[in-house]
Design a protein that fits this description.
This is Stage II sporulation protein P. InterPro entries: Spore_II_P. A hairpin with a 2-residue loop joins strand 5 and strand 6. This protein is about 30% helix and about 15% strand. It has two domains: about 30 residues, no CATH class; about 210 residues, Aminopeptidase (3-Layer(aba) Sandwich). The two termini are about 40 Å apart. By secondary structure, it is of the alpha/beta class. About 5% of the residues have low confidence. The longest helix has 20 residues. The radius of gyration is 21 Å and the shape is globular. The strands form two sheets. It has a seven-stranded mixed β-sheet with strand order 1-8-7-9-4-2-3, with helices on both faces. A two-stranded antiparallel ribbon has the order 5-6.
């Protein structure tokens, strides 16, 4: 366009286009002169992760403490880990709704929390009492207490991947099948929540609100599909509402493309699909449960009130 404009003066200026120098550097060596991160990204390990877009920044969120995904575990070495004595499943309090409208699942079911494990050096486990499945079960219980019907998939993802000779990077393909099967079996499902946990340390993933500790939450939106704006709107709405009542609990809303991970996260299946990270590797059960109760509180208000999205 720039070359054509230099010869055909009737063409309007193309102010939004980069200069030929900028475009050449970007294409040849992946460097953008106006973004210092691209100069350092190939030299400093992990800096490439900082291309994640912060759509909405929560309190304290900036480029230095963006979410970090744990490295892929060795599935063959993953064994069930005995849970600590205080990690007990709570009983259902309220009546269950017959209509299941929320589906909770875990693309990375092995993501665990150190305080719940016997071996403090571990960060992964197949034991559903010590990994993100425990958070999913708590959220299910809290939502059901508020009259919202929930289905919860407790699929052992490492086991399922291994049985197919699939690897870690195919976990979202596997969970996609899980979601599609749930949708096929129940056309009343409206919301789909994929629960994960971050690998950042406790100082980044913990909030103290009214002298009560919470594992911080954040929302991930994949932008590599046409309808991602609907998922983004839902995530931003929930972030905004939970921050009003629990200021500081949300780290924000993050937008990711293929270069930062899957880039879709099965959110193309529904405009009401969410990926929520609950705390980090160092958060304990009390902090996780406090946050789960807070999210259920806000989600139920949204669900029974203005849930046009």
């Amino acid at each position: 366009m720039e070359i054509m404009r230099s010869e055909v003066h009737a063409l309007p200026p193309s102010e939004d286009l980069p200069s030929i120098t900028e475009l050449s550097l970007d294409l040849l060596i992946n460097i953008k002169p106006k973004d210092v991160r691209t100069f350092l990204g190939n030299e400093i390990p992990g800096l490439a992760l900082y291309h994640t877009e912060i759509a909405v920044a929560g309190k304290g969120t900036n480029i230095t403490n963006l979410p970090i995904e744990s490295p892929p575990p060795q599935f063959e070495l993953l064994e069930d880990t005995n849970e600590t004595e205080d990690n007990k499943t709570e009983e259902q309090k309220g009546p269950k709704s017959k209509n299941k409208t929320v589906f909770i699942y875990h693309s990375h079911s092995w993501e665990a929390y150190k305080p719940l494990l016997k071996n403090a050096n571990q960060t992964s486990s197949n034991n559903e009492k010590t990994n993100v499945i425990a958070v999913g079960e708590k959220l299910k219980s809290e939502l059901e207490d508020k009259g919202i019907g929930v289905e919860h998939s407790k699929k052992n993802v490492p086991q399922a991947l291994t049985s197919r000779n699939w690897n870690y990077y195919q976990s979202y393909a596997l969970s996609r099948e899980t979601v599609q099967e749930a949708m096929a079996n129940n056309d009343k499902l409206k919301f789909f929540i994929d629960i994960h946990r971050d690998a950042q340390p406790k100082k980044v993933t913990t909030a103290v609100i009214n002298q009560k500790k919470y594992a911080k939450l954040f929302f991930v939106v994949g932008k590599e599909h046409k309808g991602y704006e609907m998922n983004r709107t839902l995530a931003e709405k929930l972030h905004s509402e939970i921050e009003k009542k629990y200021p500081g609990i949300s780290r924000g809303v993050f937008i990711k493309g293929k270069s930062q991970g899957d880039g879709v996260y099965n959110q193309d299946l529904s405009g009401r699909a969410l990926l929520i990270e609950f705390g980090g590797v160092d958060n304990d059960l009390t902090e996780l449960y406090n946050s789960t109760e807070a999210l259920a509180d806000i989600f139920s208000e949204f669900y029974w009130g203005d849930s046009e999205i």
